[in-house]
Amino acid sequence: MIGYLEGSILHFESDGILLLAGHIGYEVFLNHQVLERIRSQSSHNDIIALYIYYHQTERQPKPVLIGFQSLEDKAFFQEFITVDAIGPMKAVKAMSRPIGDIALAIEKKDTGFLAGLNGIGKRTAEKIIATLNGKVERFISAADGQEVIENSHIMDEMNDVRQKVEDVLVEQLGHSHASAKRMVKEAFERNRMISTPEELFDEIYQEKR
Question: Which of 93, 115, 128, 129 is deepest in the core (most CB within 10 A)?
Answer without folding.
Answer: 128
